[in-house]
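User: Hey, my collaborator sent me this sequence without any context and asked if I could get a structure. I don't really work with proteins. Can you help?
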Amino acid sequence: MTSQTGDTRTSGTAAVPSVFERTTTTWGRLTMTAGMLVSLAGPAYLLFVAGYWPGLTPILTGFAAVAAVFAVYWILEPVTYYPMLGGAGLYQAFLIGNISNKLLPAAVSAQSVLKLQAGTRRAEVASVAAICGAALMHVVTLALLVGVAGTWLVSALPASITATFDYVLPAVLGPVLVQLLWKQPQWRAAVPALVVAAVMVLLVAPHVPVLTHIGMIPTVLLGVTAAVLLRRRR
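Assistant: No problem. I've predicted the 3D structure and written it out in structure-token form, which is a compact way to encode the shape of the chain:
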């Protein structure tokens, strides 16, 4: 006995993916592959054509430093976002970027306004439309406000103001760090991590040149170890 549902076509106990799922999976893989090739085209040109090959060791060191911090998100983010975005929305989100602070809120807001239950086919279609709208608005505002107005504004500013641009990054990251600690005051984890990071950056790294490239790995490991040892035991 065969029944047709909104998500899959079932025959007995076997579920067959719908046309929508097969189509989004096929084109999602193709577009993700194309996006990866395009994003790697620039570095590949610099490395293999322009002759800026730094050696295998710095490349592996940089990869290890990034993986030590973000490798867990390679598994955590797809599993976490899938119930809210669906397969099609997930392909879009990872190709566009800024998932947690732009695309996911847009998708959830659209589903909430339409009173759709997350995980259903209609909710997935709504998330796809919301992601398209968010991406389009981002590109338009970025081109107009940053590309046109921002370029003009920077050129019109005096040198005394542009000299302060070197402090923009710490001025942004500092309040973000304070905000995170204020909302989730896990002091037994935060304080050891900050102390370990300060010691590594200010005391250890200047005297151990090799840590200039791989210092993030021992810093993260030591910070996690200190937080675990000092955690509250119940």
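In plain terms: The longest helix spans residues 56-96. You can pass these tokens on to your collaborator as they are.
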